[in-house]
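Quarterly update from the structural biology core.
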Amino acid sequence: MAQKVLFINCTPKKSPEESNTRALCNDVAEVYEKEYGLRCDFIRVVDFNVLPGIESDMGKGDEWPEILERIKDADIIIVATPIWIGNISSLAQRVFERLEGTYSEGDPDNGQYPLYNKVGGAVITGTEDGAHFCAKTIQFCLMRFGCTIPPGADCYWVGPAGPGPSYIAAEGGRHLYTNRTKRTMVANTVFMAELLAKNRIPTNLLEVEEKAAAESTESIEIDWRSASKKESGKPKN
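Predicted structure, tokenized:
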């Protein structure tokens, strides 16, 4: 059964500054904990020294490995971001850039990435439009790294156009649509996590890579995905 949910809060506000994104995460977590009995963990990325790069460990001073271990330990991963200039925050972008390193951590038996058989979702807050764009960006990135994305796996609150009160001041927790998306996301992510716990994805990416290379006229080095680790071509620049 699913046991742990990890919220990755990508607000640019350092602790202990009040975060509207964290406030919505708290409301979502309350449903996970009280109605489904799951444990919730929270990471505020800005509180860590996450170096730029696309590897799982960028060396001295890099605190991403600590975050990555907590990601690997979770069953459900919720990436939460405020909307900045209609997009995800720079910290959310940094998270996805660093998750690129998990491509090289494939399971030696089947090549699956560490996020395979985990479930992903998105939480977004903002005072203007951009929630749909942020949600699809988060969901696509999580899916590419191996997460399964169930229907309705996003919860958001946005205010009217222009300056105005944010989630906390506007009492966003009383907004019908936000509460509907909150409960839909929780129910569907829990269902999918429990389904995957009992029925893990069987795809063998090592076999997929071998077959794809065999039927291709040119292919890049298979490297870690290949059981034989033979090079069948050079990548184009």
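The two ends are 45 Å apart (CA to CA).
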